[in-house]
Structure formats: C-alpha cells, structure tokens
Amino acid sequence: MGEGAIHSDVADGAALRAGARSGRFIGWFLVLALIAFAYYPAFFPPSIHSLEGQTEGFFFEANEAAGAPVLILALWLFYRRSHYLDLLRGPGSPLSAAGFLLLATALFSWGAYTGALDLQILSLIALLVGIVLLLGGGRALRAFWLPILFLGFALPVPPVLLAAVIFPIQLATAWFAGLLLNALGFEAFVQGDQILRPENTFIVIETCSGVRTMLTLSMLTVLLIDLFERRGWHAAILIALAPIVAFVTNGFRVVSLVLNPHSSIHSIHNLQGIAMLLVGLTAIYGIDLGLERLLGSRAPDAAAGDYGVERAVGDGSGRATGQTFAIAALLVLFIAFDRFGPTWVAARGLEESPRALLTRVFGEDPEAPRPIDYNFMGSVHYLAHARHRVLVDGIPVEIMLGVANEQQREYSILTPRLAWPATGHAPVEERFEEIVDGGPRARRMVFRRGARSVLSYSWIERRGGFF
C-alpha cells in the first residue's frame, strides 16, 4: 500500500513536470502573457495611477470605469470554475470561434485606431468567448460564460445613456432624501437638486445620485447569486431588485451626509458611501434568504452543474498546441497594431469661439467671462462654451452656448440638464415648441427658485436621436 502510494506520487510529479515542459503548457503561458500585455492599458489606464483611484471610481464615479477591481473579481469567478478546465479539451466549435475572433480583431483594431479603451475591453470579451469555443465548444462556454461577461462591468456607462438618466436620478434622490428627512423629524425643503434646511443647503451632485451605487450593487448581487448558486426566478428577482435597493440605500446615504457636519471631509464622505453600500448588500442578502424560503430555492446538486468530462483523443494534444500558438500569433498582431499602427487624428478647434460669437451678435457683456458651475454641470463637458448676458426690452436674458467635444467619448451633451439655468431650480412647466418657423424644436420650461421664476428655452443643433 505504502510503496504503491509512493510510486503514484512519483508518477504524478513526473507527469506534472512533463506537462510543464510540453508545448501546450508553453503555448498557454504565452497566450496569457500576451493577453496581459495587450489589455493592460484598458484595465490600468495611465490616467489612473493607483488601485486606490480606481477603487474610488468603482464606488462613486458614474462615468468612470474601474477595470482593476472588476478584473480581480472576474478572475475569482473563473477560479470557482477551475474544475471545468477539462472541458477546454473538447472537440471545439471552430466556425463559431472564428466569428468571435474576427469580431475581437475588429473591435481591438478600431479601439486602437480611435484610442477607445472601452472597445478594447469589449474585444477582450469577444476574444475569450472565441478562445473557449475554439478549445471546448458550447459546453465549455456554458461553464465559463459568467466570468467572461462579468468583465463588462469594467466598461464605463455609455455617455448618451448616462447623460439621459443621471440628472433625473439626481432630482429623484433629492426628493426621496427630503422625504426621509421630514419623516425623521428634520425639517427640509427640496427645490430641484437642492435640499434646503435651516442649518445648511445640500446639493445632490452626480457622485451622490446613486447611479454608480446601482451598478456596483448589481455587480455584487451577481457575485452573491453565483456564490449561493441561485437559479431561475430567484436570480432574476435579485437582479431586478438590486437597482431599487441601491436607490433606497443611497437615499439614506444622502440623509447621513446632510445630517453629518463633517461630511464635507473627503475620507468621511467615502466611508459613508462604502458603509451604505454594505447596508445595501446586506439588504440583498436578506431578500435572498426570504426568496429561498418563499420559492424553496436550494443550491443545485454538484452533478446538475457538471457539463461532463472531455478527454483529448488521437492527436488532440498537437491540435491544442497549434490552437494556442495560433491565438498567440493573433495577439502579437493586436499588440503590433496597437503600438505601431495608425491612429485617428480629427481636426480640432473652432473657426470662432462661443464667447467671440456671442459678443459679435449681442455686443459686449461687461461681466464676461461669467463663471460656470462645474459641480452642477457634472459630466457635461464641452470643447468650448460661454455664458453671455444681454438686455431685451430692459429684461436681462442669459444665453449659454456650448459646443460638444466629439473627441471625448465618455461624455455627451444630450442631457435634460441643459434646460436648467442653474442648481436649485424646480421645474413648474414644460413643453416643446418652435421659436421660429422651420427652426429647431425648443424645450420651453418655467422654473421657480424661491419667489423668482425663470423662463428657459433650450435646444441642441445637429443632434441625433437617443439610440
């Protein structure tokens, strides 16, 4: 018995050493190293120099991607499926794999050409799907699809979508926080994105809107679903409730910021946000336990999640080695195009600046340039912009002219915020109408701030539809 065990251990060790020296092992090591080299800038962009900076963006910045934390969690999800690695020695699906590898090539090349790191992250997802299909086919993809798609959480929110939803969510958050404050006995009045109290005024800016909290809690909910192996309606209900729970907990976070006299301190502000995120995750866990009792959910048997064992047959080892080196060659092409390929350079600058144009048309503004409230504008960024005040029949009229920066893919000016004259205005009336025949349809809104009413017209030239 003892001698047999010793011989078995020696044989296993010899097999392990032989595998480490095999071309297949070298090929896999080369592929992983090339993937890390090719996609390192997408997950660790030079604009963020530390993991701490990415982590803060991960928790609070709605329009910032946080690649490093997502990558770590995706690797953990892959590790949880490491017992399915045998599936990567299956027959494979070369035709389906070729389609995804071509898609990955197109996305990476265009992302490198235009400097769009988000497209390169999408290309990594397509690349990994192609690799899994090539090596193991559909059954392998069913085993590893979650950690691959989980990398999508590293993508920034599409700018047009973010611009369309973030300001309405800010207004809803201010309303909900004011409701909670009054319910708790703290007098508060909500006016637009401001919460007015006798002691102070609190503005719900973008980082307090809860958009990033919704994304982060949704991501953590996916991890919880995978950890407890929830399926079907149980998993679907948790995913659907995660943004709602995030909105509610963020409302309590805003209340804690309003009531905490030290909330303006950066570290305290961040700690309150992380604490409320943990409260939201605890709420999701409580809902999970309730659904387990209500639906009778149980983790599936180990056999139910087993996709079978694939063994290489015939010349399978040589085929796998050829596949890994082919993928390595493709990645070398990616890196070469990224480092030495052409880059897109668009014409920048304007024939006439907004300030010069407004001055030429309306005359001098003695108080120009007028300051811009960047906290209020948030993620709305311009190539150039200016504010100008003129008198029309003795009534002061403020004009704001901005030009979109089409080079910054992470920002969009297609936002309802443009109609607001400034922070703290509550909308009273809204409709769309033509100012002049054949002209653009303008958004006509009436705002009130205290005893003052403001009439606002806003429109965007050369805009496309939302989609």
User: Could you spell the SSE succession in H and E letters?
Assistant: HHHHHHHEEEHHHHHHEEEEE
Strand content: 5-15%
Shape: globular
Helix amount: 55-70%
Overall mean pLDDT stands at: 84
User: What is the radius of gyration?
Assistant: 28 Å
* Class by alpha and beta content: mainly alpha
* Spatial strand order of the main sheet: 1-2-3
Q: How far is the N terminus from the C terminus?
A: 70 Å
What does this structure look like?
The chain is mainly alpha-helical and 467 residues long. Helices cover 55% and strands 12% of the residues. The chain contains 13 helices and eight strands. Strands 1-2-3 form a three-stranded antiparallel β-sheet, covered by helices on one side. A hairpin with a 2-residue loop joins strand 4 (382-392) and strand 5 (395-404). Helix 7 (159-183) crosses helix 9. It is globular and about 85 Å long. Mean pLDDT is 84; it is low at 1-12 and 308-315.
Please sum up the structure shown.
The protein has 467 residues and is mainly alpha-helical.
